[in-house]
Write a structure and sequence with these properties.
The protein folds into four domains: 45 residues; 105 residues, Tetrahydropterin Synthase, Chain A (2-Layer Sandwich), CATH 3.30.479.30; 41 residues; 37 residues, no CATH class. 51% of the residues lie in helices and 25% in strands. The strands form four sheets. It has a three-stranded antiparallel β-sheet with strand order 3-2-5. The chain has a three-stranded antiparallel β-sheet with strand order 6-7-8, covered by helices on one side. A hairpin with a 5-residue loop joins strand 6 and strand 7.
């Protein structure tokens, strides 16, 4: 029986090793081999044996994978970030602005984005392009143009340049909004005063134009009245008045009211009509 002890010991050792392997396998299967992707997330597959899989990506939900595979999560919804940017205008003045950018990664090209830029693709790609485009475009305008009249035009130029720079195949830039333009206080006050004066001048010219149009209207109305009166006066000849008197006499004579008509008794030889009174 003494010879059986080594066999029992070896069997116990094998059993212990097998138990440990099973425990490790369960731990691996329960932790490292499952990844949950939440709403709006997509996953990129990375294997220690093959690197980034450019043809494979994971959708939302629970994903089960081998322990040598890692799933990198990406938010593929639209995201927004506010950037404070300082630039120089065309005349060398320092301009501050708040630029808000709204973007998202293109879902079906996430593996390419991950391989080229990684998880911090915003800091490596989007942010530098936004800052570079803003500084370049702002340098083409004067402070007055940036503050008032051409901000929309500048904003569109920035978004067009950023879209070209980030590669629209990898990043979709939906909008860039210039929320605030900060000028030196003295320059801003001068621009505001100038705009106020321009508005006053426009209001003054509008008033003059309005008064001029009203005067023209009254003159046209007066000329029309004078012309009408002149035409009427010229048409009231003695013959015309006598004709109208005869028409009126005939009309009254035909009415059923009691009356006396004296032929030739009125002025200009018109009949004289005497009624009940």
């Amino acid at each position: 029986m003494a010879n059986n002890y080594p066999n029992l010991t070896q069997a116990a050792s094998r059993l212990m090793i097998g138990f440990i392997v099973v425990i490790i396998f369960i731990l691996l299967a329960g932790g490292l081999m499952t990844t949950t992707l939440g709403p709006g997330q997509s996953g990129v597959k990375y294997s220690i044996f093959g690197g980034t899989d450019l043809d494979k990506q994971f959708a939302e939900g629970l994903q089960i994978h081998p322990p040598w595979v890692d799933i990198i999560k990406y938010d593929v919804r639209f995201q927004e970030k506010l950037e404070e940017i300082t630039a120089l205008s065309s005349d060398g003045l320092t301009i501050g602005m708040d630029a808000s950018i709204r973007w998202r990664p293109v879902r079906n090209l996430l593996p390419n984005l991950h391989q080229n830029y990684g998880e911090n693709y915003y800091g490596k790609l989007v942010q530098p392009e936004l800052r570079s485009a803003a500084r370049e475009i702002v340098g083409q305008y004067t402070p007055e143009e940036l503050y008032s009249s051409r901000r929309t035009e500048m904003q569109q130029q920035i978004i067009d340049q950023v879209r070209r720079g980030v590669d629209e195949n990898l990043i979709e830039v939906e909008a860039i909004l210039i929320r605030n333009v900060k000028l030196p206080e003295q320059i801003q006050r001068a621009i505001e005063n100038k705009l106020t004066e321009e508005q006053e001048v426009e209001r003054y010219f509008f008033t003059l134009q309005k008064d001029s149009l009203e005067a023209q209207r009254k003159q046209i109305e007066a000329d029309g009245q004078a012309t009408y009166q002149r035409i009427i006066t010229e048409s009231l000849t003695p013959q015309f008045l006598r004709f109208k008197g005869i028409e009126a006499t005939l009309t009254l004579a035909e009415s059923p009211n009691t009356k006396t008509v004296i032929v030739g008794g009125g002025e200009d030889g018109l009949p004289l009509i005497l009624g009940d009174q």
